[in-house]
Amino acid sequence: MFERYTEKARRVIFFARYEVSELGAKSIETEHLLLGLLREDKALILRFLSAKASVDEIRKQVEEGAERGTEISTSVEVPLSGESKKVLKYATNESENLGCRDVRTEHLLIGLLRMKNSLAERVLRESGVHLSDVRRHFRGEK
Question: Which of 2, 11, 31, 75 can pair with 119 through a Cys bridge, CB separation 3.0 to 4.6 Å?
């Protein structure tokens, strides 16, 4: 499933699984993907944040809004939620639309922003990260 993903994009998924184990969730949700993206490619997010937002504030908002359970072992297989599967599909579509052979972290960010009404999309939007701005940037538009 992840053969087209760059090493950095694969690490986002790895870190998302780690976040699930820390928070005790039953599946990998969009907010876990966002936390994984923050761990792997903080610079990507910083590029689009509004002046009043911070990576620490994003992490805090996600942790406050995420469902919590009992911490689980990182060796336990945790499935992707339906929304997270859509995010990954959106990322693949964005990669293809931008003429890229690989799925990169910026495609994952766009995928998260396309998943309307998810916790990750809401936190990003409230932090000044908008789908149109990210797309424009990676298409080389002003």
Answer: 31
| Residue 28, phi then psi, degrees to nearest 5 | -80, 110
Residue 142 pLDDT > 60, yes or no?
no
**Domain range list for the chain:** 7-138
Give, to the nearest 10 degrees, the angle between helix 82-97 and helix 105-114: 120
CATH number assigned to the domain covering 7-138: 1.10.1780.10
Query: Tokens standing for 83?
Result: 């929304």
C-alpha 67: how far from chain center = 17
Q: 3-class SS at 47?
A: coil
What distance in Å separates the CA atoms of residue 129 and residue 49, rounded to the nearest whole number?
A: 6
Average pLDDT, integer, range 33-61: 92
For 88, the token pair is 């990954």
Q: For residue range 79-120, what is the model confidence (pLDDT) as tens digits?
A: 999 999 999 999 999 999 988 999 999 999 999 999 999 999
Evaluate whether 12 touches 33 at the Cβ level (below 8 Å).
yes
In 2-142, the DSSP E strands lie at none
Backbone angles phi, psi at 2, to 5 degrees: -105, 20
Mean pLDDT over all residues of the chain? Answer: 91
